[in-house]
Structures are given as C-alpha cells and as structure tokens.
Amino acid sequence: MxxxxxxxxxxxxxxxxxxxxxxxxxGFNQEDRMEKISREDFDREVDKLxxxxxxxxxxxxxxxxxxxxxxxxxxxxxxxxxxxRRAFFAGAQHLFGSIMGILDPGSEPTDxxxxxxxxxxxxxxxxxxxxRTFTRKKMT
Length: 140
Prior knowledge:
Layout: H1 30-33, H2 39-55, H3 59-70, H4 78-102, H5 111-139
Helix pairs in contact: 2-3, 3-4
C-alpha cells in the first residue's frame, strides 16, 4: 500500500518518525484501506522491517515507535514520550551491554552462552506476554 506521503507499508500505518499521522497521511481512513493478511505474512513483514531498521541503525528506534503506538496512551505528552524513550533505550543498552559482558571468550557459543541466552529469551517472552495482555485490555 502506498500512502500520500510516499511511505509504503503493508499494514496501513506510516511509521516515519516525522509523520506520526500528522503529515500528508492525516485524514486518510487507514482502517478502510488496510489489507487483511495472515499472521505468518505479518510476522514475515515485521522481520523484513526489523532487518531494514537494523541495517540503517534504527532497530531500537523502530521498536520504540511500535511501543509508543501499541502500549502508550495516544494522548501521552511530549515529556512522557521523551522519558519513556530514554527508558526504552536504556533498557536496550543494558541488555546489549550485559550480553556482550556475559558471553564466554571465543568465536563459538558455549553451552553456558546458550543457556544464558535462553534465560534472557524466557524473561523477555514473559514480558511480551504481559504487554500483549495489557494492549488487549487497552483496545477493548
């Protein structure tokens, strides 16, 4: 789908940082134009966007945009958005720095490395489940 601002996004939402539906897309009825896709196609598209964002050095920013859209209240003030973004990036920095510090030396992962990564994965999945529950309640 192509929006008036030129941003192509299959799920009916412009993700440009400078747009946030305040730019050329404002006033477009996105729900009527949104394509219906399967969960597998959705996940594949999200993975493509994540790779693109990572290649451009914006993976954490892209994650925050999603967090702001699906978790934060729509009327959150600029100070709340700024402080939440800082906390979001601080969490990302903490995790990345921790991972770099806990891995055993060498180019191949050890069993201990894999166990640590599994523990991190489980912790983040628990949090994701909490967020999904919160956003479902928020949308009803």
